[in-house]
Amino acid sequence: MTASERDLLVAGVDVGGTNIEVGLVDDRHEVHGRAKAPTPTGGPDEVLDTISRLIASLDADPVAVGVGIPGVVHEGAVLTVPNLAGWHERFDLVASLQERIDLPIALGNDANVGLLGEWLAGAARGARNVLGLWMGTGVGGGLILDGRPFNGARGAAGEIGHVVVLAGGALCTCGRRGCAEAYAGRRSMRGVASAMVDAGWTTSLFDIRDDEDKSSLTSKVWARALDEDDALATKLFDTAVETLGVAVGSAINLLDLEVVVVGGGLAEKLGSDLADRIAAAAEPWMLRPSPDLRFVVSELEDDAGVVGAASLARAAIVTG
Amino acid sequence: MTASERDLLVAGVDVGGTNIEVGLVDDRHEVHGRAKAPTPTGGPDEVLDTISRLIASLDADPVAVGVGIPGVVHEGAVLTVPNLAGWHERFDLVASLQERIDLPIALGNDANVGLLGEWLAGAARGARNVLGLWMGTGVGGGLILDGRPFNGARGAAGEIGHVVVLAGGALCTCGRRGCAEAYAGRRSMRGVASAMVDAGWTTSLFDIRDDEDKSSLTSKVWARALDEDDALATKLFDTAVETLGVAVGSAINLLDLEVVVVGGGLAEKLGSDLADRIAAAAEPWMLRPSPDLRFVVSELEDDAGVVGAASLARAAIVTG
């Protein structure tokens, strides 16, 4: 890489519930260097300190920084962050990070930013109407509509996990009853798995968790239990897929989409099988699917958030 | 009106299941003359003959024609028309109508076109993210997203009536189970009302229908039964509103909307009460509603389709 190419590098920052990942990204969306640290649990200032430290550790200086965060984002501020410890109120992240790093800084929601990465450089490249479906602790989502990222009135769009599939059904961690996430989010699935074990069912899920030295049922734990044909894990996963099919079918009826990108840890581990299964589950609910409709898995995997955040950074150079 | 103003008039055509309405519309979206006829049941050619005759009967010659039709529309063709008798296959409406009327012609889906009218000149004027919810024989919808009409990959977007609210629930006329329309479309509601009467319940709905000399349970019949506190009509209508609340809540979680416009015959008759009731029914399902979110009823009523179709006509003058 020449010096002139290095001048074009921006930093993409993906703040997750477990780790913060930072990458140096060029204008072809390629990642040239990475750094990673556990997400601090002490609130916004600790997170910004970690971001600054990770960026300083990269082997080149970026010309701008983009950050994806799991919260509602509007005009450079984070309005709510349900899944990060210590974030209780509105926080002007761009202004605060700029006090530490004197560069153009941009901010986006993590699911929207992840889809941006897949749309610019991954599985949804070139598509005009795309839903991103991220299977994780919860179920997140993002949208590309009419050939551009769609964030909604306040940056809160894309919540495919809180599309209601069975009004009055299972209690969701958001407090409502019948959201897709109540059946397909790993946090909810773990709660049901525990209850089933208490009721006398057997499963290898918790043994695999201990064997893998994890503190929760991660996607790796689920993937291993499914691979080993664990009956309870299979039953819970089937329910998750069926439920996501309903939510995605509703989204397609409302938005007439062309591509559904499935991402998150399970997508990395199960690959295109997972996309095929969700496609099959969605098909019965679709009124008029486009003949061009495709279900694909994330191509960038962990890099999707970094690449998407970097693209926000690149836009921030222009817009200030 | 001067001759130069007349030069700017375009025709908006609203093809409904019952009537075809045509209006002469100026560039301020005002309607200057109207004509109306029952929708022929003999298929596309009869419909085009009626449109041509209605346009010829107007007291000025339009410079372009826009048509809204209850079907999936793509690139000047009608792909499917579930609710018009005699339309069984793809039909090149623009090309065929142009053989009769030598003017620029544009085509849109009726629900999308109705929302376009409300967005340009009615209840959603100036809003950037809008859902139109049309309560009729079925439940139709349209979307304005990021400040422009959104039609999806193939022109099939906006189907709020086929957002699933209770997977596996009531059988919908589309063949799926649990769509909002299965609970809130007048056709489905009539079916349940008949069954309830067969089971011994009493209702004034069918007496009012006869008294009003209607052949079906029109919005006027429903409005009168509700006004007279008919218990069964009230129960069915409450279910419809609750169900629409779930579907609209899901749409808001997915799209972070600013305005929901409620239209159709019942909206005209019940007014803002209907919008308030749907708002109250949707509120419990919303994850993060925008503080600016508003629920309003259609202002243009029957003219929404004509005005929206006319705006398509005006665009067709420019694009050819």
From TrEMBL, chains A, B:
Gene3D superfamilies: 3.30.420.40. One of its GO terms (molecular function) is kinase activity. It holds the Pfam family ROK. Signal peptide: none annotated. InterPro entries: ATPase_NBD (IPR043129), ROK (IPR000600), ROK_cs (IPR049874). Keywords: Kinase, Transferase. The keyword Transferase applies. Belongs to the ROK (NagC/XylR) family. This is Glucokinase. It comes from Microlunatus sagamiharensis.
